[in-house]
Amino acid sequence: MFNRFLETEDQVIADSLKIRFYPISVKSAKGTRITDQDGKDYLDLAAGWAVAGIGYGHPRVSSKIKEQYDTLSFTSQLSAPEQTMVSLAQKLIDITPGSFPKKVWFGHSGSDANDCIFKLVPLEKNRSRMISFMGSYHGQTLGSLSLSGHPAQSRFIGSGNVVKIPYPNPYRPPFGETDRLTDQIIDFLENEVFKTVCPAEETAGIIIEGIQSDGGLIIPPDDFLPRLQEMCRHFGIRLIFDEVKVGLGRTGKWFSFDHYGIEPDAVVLGKSLGGGLPISSVVARKEMLDVGTGIHMFTTSGNPVSSTAALETLKIIEDERLIENARHKGEYFISLLTELQKKYQWIGDIRGKGLAIGVELVEDRVSKTPAAEKTAAICYRCYQLGLLAFYVGIHSNVIEITPPLTLTKDDIDLAVSILDQAFSDLEEQKIDMNLVKEYAGW
Question: Which residues cross the membrane (predicted)?
Answer without folding.
Answer: none
